[in-house]
Write a structure and sequence with these properties.
Number of helices: 12
Strand order of the largest sheet: 2-1-3-10-4-11
Number of strands: 11
Strand content: 15-25%
Distance between the termini: 43 Å
Largest sheet: 6 strands, mixed
Shape: globular
CATH topology of the largest domain: D-Maltodextrin-Binding Protein, domain 2
Radius of gyration: 19 Å
Length: about 270
C-alpha cells in the first residue's frame, strides 16, 4: 500500500482510544491529519519493522487536548514541543529520549505585496498563528510585547489549523503578519511561499522532543532510544528528513530540556481551565 493510502481513521485517532496491542506514537498536531499521517509514515513503518509489532499514529484536535493526552499517558512514544515535553517530564515523569536537529526558529513573516516596515506596523492589524500554545508563538508574542505591542490590545491574534492556512491569510489580505518556522515554511505550497517574506528572525527554540512512557522498563527504553538515534541513517529516515527540514536526531540531555523552562509559566497559565 502506498504512503498516504491508509484510511485516516486507522492511523489518526483524534479522540482517546480503547486499549490496544499496538505501539502508539502520539504526535503534536502541527499539520492537518492527512499531512501528519504522510509525514510520519516512514517513522511508523520503521518502528513497526524494528519492534516487530503493530505501530499506529495518534494525535488530537489541538495542542491543549494533545497535552492532556500526553499527561494522561495515552502514548507509548510522544513527539511534542519542548515546553510540553519539559512539563510532561517534570509533572508526570515521562522520559526524554531524543530530539530533532536543528533547533526550531520563530519567524515573523508578511506578504511581499503588503510589506511591513517594522513590527510596529502591526498595530491595529491581525497576526496569524497556528496555536497560542506553540512555543514559537509564545516567543513571538513575547518579542512583540518587548516592542510595546500587547496581544489582543494593540493587534488581534487569530489561530489557524496549519502553517499553510496562516500563510494563506497573509496572501489574501486577512492578516498583516504571521508566525512560522523554517520547518513550517516547508509545509507551505511553493507558489504561496514565493509570495511571502521574513520580516524578523525572533528566536531559536528547542526542537521537538521524543518522550517514552514513565513506566517503560530500562532495557526497552534504551532499545527505543537506540532505534530513534539510528533512524536518520535508515532508508525510511532519509526519506523522512528529506521532507521535514530536519537534519537528524540527537540524544536529549538535562541541559537541553532546561532550555524550555522559561516558557513553562506561560504554558501553565494558558492551559489552566
Amino acid at each position: 500500500m502506498k504512503r498516504g493510502a491508509w484510511p485516516l481513521w486507522l492511523l489518526i485517532l483524534l479522540l482517546p482510544a480503547a486499549p490496544a496491542l499496538a505501539f502508539t506514537i502520539g504526535i503534536l498536531p502541527v499539520h492537518s491529519s492527512r499531512v501528519l499521517v504522510e509525514r510520519y509514515e516512514p517513522l511508523r513503518v520503521y518502528l513497526e519493522r524494528s519492534l516487530k509489532q503493530p505501530v499506529r499514529v495518534e494525535s488530537a484536535p489541538d495542542f491543549a487536548r494533545f497535552q492532556q493526552r500526553t499527561l494522561r499517558g495515552d502514548f507509548d512514544l510522544t513527539i511534542t514541543a519542548a515546553h510540553f515535553a519539559r512539563m510532561a517530564q517534570k509533572d508526570r515523569g515521562l522520559q526524554p529520549l531524543a530530539q530533532f536537529t536543528p533547533d526550531h526558529d520563530a519567524l515573523l513573516i508578511y506578504s511581499a505585496r503588503q510589506p511591513l516596515a517594522s513590527p510596529a506596523d502591526l498595530r491595529g492589524r491581525q497576526l496569524a498563528v497556528i496555536d497560542r500554545l506553540a512555543i514559537t508563538v509564545m516567543a513571538a508574542l513575547q518579542y512583540l510585547d518587548e516592542q510595546g505591542l500587547e496581544a489582543d490590545r494593540d493587534y488581534r491574534v487569530v489561530e489557524h489549523r496549519t502553517h499553510a492556512s496562516a500563510a494563506h491569510s497573509l496572501v489574501n489580505g486577512l492578516s498583516s503578519a504571521a508566525v512560522t518556522t523554517s520547518q513550517g515554511l516547508m509545509q507551505i505550497p511553493e507558489d504561496m511561499r514565493a509570495r511571502l517574506a521574513v520580516i524578523k528572525h525572533i528566536a531559536d527554540i528547542p526542537a521537538f522532543v521524543f518522550l517514552a512512557r514513565p513506566d517503560m522498563p530500562g532495557a526497552d527504553l534504551q532499545r527505543l532510544r537506540d532505534l530513534l538515534l539510528a533512524f536518520p541513517g535508515e532508508a525510511e529516515g532519509i526519506d523522512f528528513l528529506g521532507h521535514t527540514g530536519y537534519t537528524g536526531l540527537r540524544a536529549t540531555s538535562e541541559a537541553s530540556m532546561r532550555r524550555a523552562d522559561p516558557y513553562l509559566k506561560e504554558t501553565r497559565k494558558v492551559l489552566k481551565p
